[in-house]
Amino acid sequence: MEKQEKLQREQQINENLRRVYQQVVEEEVPDRFKELLDKLKAQENSQ
Amino acid sequence: MSQPDGTAQDPRDEIVEHLRPMRAFAMSLTRNSSAADDLVQDAIMKAWQNIEKFEPGTNMRAWLFTILRNTFYSNRRKAKREVADVDGAMAATLSEKPAHDGRLAFKDFEKAFAQLPDEQREALILVGATGFTYEEAAVTCGVAIGTIKSRVNRGRKHLCEMLDLGEDETMDMTDRATMAVVFEMTPPQKYCS
């Protein structure tokens, strides 16, 4: 019984952790990162 | 490094696929969205410049996460005092008691999570949220698997204490509200895109 409670607590914590993480994963990625990658690539090609 | 068809195979083209998880991991480290984005930017530049250190065929996400966290810790060493103040401010805003319907109020969870020591926070996120195995988390953090396991355990215990969910807590974890939350909140296993 005690073990089951512990397991449920763990489950709750994991659900919340996933929520913390997933909140950001689901956000649109700001353009600056794709622009940065494009810029880096362009620099490379012009060398 | 050209393929038979003439197209260059550059592992750096894959970085763009990891931007979302990188931002999420950076956010869990910095707890501040503009700091997280600056961290991701630094990590992208380092990854770009050091791509020859990446072994094709290995886990690029773990490699990028390693760069991200190393950058975080080295930046933080430079600005230690500032971070201590942020932690203090966080501590002051944590409410005293959890909601007593048996669920973890998410806001309280976020605040408690933000107060964990960095090494516990990152271990919990890597193992509990990103879909990394203990082994991948250990490689990412540059420590032994046993160390990751113990950080995860200490982190969970810490969270339970802060959220008043300790061993002696009399809260009925099997009540219907709790069960509903536990099962309702289980999303389809969807790991980061």
Strand coverage percent of chain B: under 5%
User: What is the end-to-end distance of chain A?
Assistant: 66 Å
Radius of gyration from the alpha-carbon trace of chain B, in angstroms: 19 Å
Helix-strand sequence of chain A: HH
Query: What is the quaternary state of this protein?
Result: heterodimer
Q: Which consecutive residue ranges of chain A, at least 5 long each, have pLDDT under 50?
A: none
Number of E-state strands of chain A: 0
Low-confidence stretches of chain B: 92-96, 167-176, 179-193
Q: What is the count of β-strands of chain B?
A: 0
Biggest sheet character of chain A: none
Number of helices of chain A: 2
Any overview of this molecule?
The complex is a heterodimer of chains A (47) and B (193). Chain A is 85% helix and 0% strand. Chain A has 47 residues and is an all-alpha fold. Chain A starts with a helix and ends with a helix. In chain A, 21% of the residues are buried. The model of chain A has no long low-confidence stretch (mean pLDDT 90). Chain B has 193 residues and is mainly α. The longest helix of chain B is centred in the middle third of the chain and has 19 residues. In chain B, helix 1 packs across helix 2, helix 3 packs across helix 7 and helix 6 crosses helix 8.
Topology:
The complex is a heterodimer of chains A (47) and B (193).
Chain A lengths: L1 H24 L5 H16 L1
Chain B lengths: L18 H12 L2 H17 L10 H19 L1 H14 L12 H10 L2 H11 L5 H8 L3 H18 L13 H9 L9
Helix pairs in contact in B: 1-2, 1-3, 2-3, 3-7, 4-5, 6-8, 7-8
